[in-house]
Write a structure and sequence with these properties.
about 90 residues; mainly beta; 2 domains; 2 helices; about 35% strand
């Protein structure tokens, strides 16, 4: 299969220090955008959630790669990424 975007290290894409090249133990999330496959290397995987997405506002409005936020039941703020923006 053709992988248009290749393997993207999510930490480095978001400006965080990366952990180096992918290892044999790397966790990869495979995504499909516009019919093309790509992979995101992530540190860990969480549970699937159904959330109400709140768009970013104020000084964070229009922040690249972020679709919005959601407030979880325990008060934690969940930042929802915009994969189309991150992988382009």
């Amino acid at each position: 299969m053709y992988c248009a975007t290749g393997l993207v290290n999510l930490a480095r894409t978001l400006g965080q220090p990366g952990s180096g090249p992918p290892s044999a133990e790397a966790k990869i999330v495979i995504v499909s955008l516009d019919g093309q496959l790509g992979g995101l290397e992530v540190e860990r995987l969480g549970d699937r959630l159904d959330v109400m997405l709140k768009p970013m506002d104020g000084i964070l409005q229009g922040m690249p790669g972020v679709a919005g936020t959601s407030l979880l039941g325990d008060g934690t703020v969940l930042v929802v990424l915009d994969l189309q923006d991150l992988l382009r």
